Amino acid sequence: TQLLEQSPQFLSIQEGENLTVYCNSSSVFSSLQWYRQEPGEGPVLLVTVVTGGEVKKLKRLTFQFGDARKDSSLHITAAQPGDTGLYLCAWRKGDYKLSFGAGTTVTVRA
Amino acid sequence: GAGVSQSPSNKVTEKGKDVELRCDPISGHTALYWYRQRLGQGLEFLIYFQGNSAPDKSGLPSDRFSAERTGESVSTLTIQRTQQEDSAVYLCASSLSNGNTEAFFGQGTRLTVV
Fold first, then answer.
1. What distance in Å separates residue B80's CA from the closest CA in chain A?
2. Residues 6 or more apart from B51 whose CB is under 8 A from it?
3. Which residues in chain A are contacts of B103 at CB distance < 8 A?
4. Which of the residues A17, A86, A91, B109 has the least number of beta carbons within 10 Å of its own beta carbon?
5. pLDDT tens digits for range B62-111
């Protein structure tokens, strides 16, 4: 069983600050997905990373996949209150089930 | 439909009663997932369907939980003899089955057992 560990569990920052959340495992992933879940909603896909060392940017969000494909990080620059939510990383092997980490709850204070 | 639809959106039930939760996936999506999310926590996998078959039921917490899918479309999750620890948001997601395709989630059913 591949276990996705996310850290920190909770993160509270002031608007305009930067933050990084992590997703780690002892196993190698073929790919990783990052989702954001806002209160009262289902998770929504932000990005899929596939290649070791890959960096993807989505406006103020930067996603990195580790060279060994065992870990990933999400960095948010100049966080805004709209970035508040639960950030989840997920892994799926082929056609198999989609497994999620426990998530990082991010709160951005105005 | 345009997205994954779940009903009801909220359900309050008495301990010991049975409940049935419904999920309408996106048309054409062969993969369907049920997850449970307790307050302030991540997603706990329950069951996965590929078409109408469930190759992985390993996440169902007890024999009080069951799920079915018909016509490669609608799925129902049934919880019998509900307990207070069953209180949670139950999320359904669907996706095309291959590769790194995106899973689309419904808004969930918030179940409260009193």
1. 24
2. B30, B69, B72
3. 33, 43, 45, 90, 98
4. A17
5. 999 999 999 889 999 999 999 999 999 999 999 887 556 788 999 999 99
Name residue A66's amino acid. G
- pLDDT, tens digit, for every residue of A22-74? 999 988 888 899 999 998 899 999 999 989 999 999 999 999 999 999 999 99
Q: What confidence score (pLDDT) does residue A36 get?
A: 96
Question: In this structure, how many other beta carbons lie within 10 angstroms of the beta carbon of residue A110?
Answer: 8
Task: Collect all residues of chain A within an 8 Å Cβ-Cβ radius of residue B35.
Answer: 100
Contact B100 A33 (CB under 8 A): yes
Largest CA distance in chain A: 42
Residue B46 half-sphere exposure toward CB, CA atoms < 13 A: 28
Q: Which residues pair with A55 in a beta bridge?
A: A64
Which of A33, A97, A102 comes nearest B56 by C-beta?
A97
pLDDT of residue A94: 60
Q: Which residues of A touch B (CB under 8 A)?
A: 6, 31, 33, 40-45, 48, 50, 86, 88, 90, 92, 94-103, 105
Q: Give residues with Cβ within 8 angstroms of B46, minimum separation 6.
A: B33, B34, B35, B36, B59, B60, B61, B65, B67, B77, B90
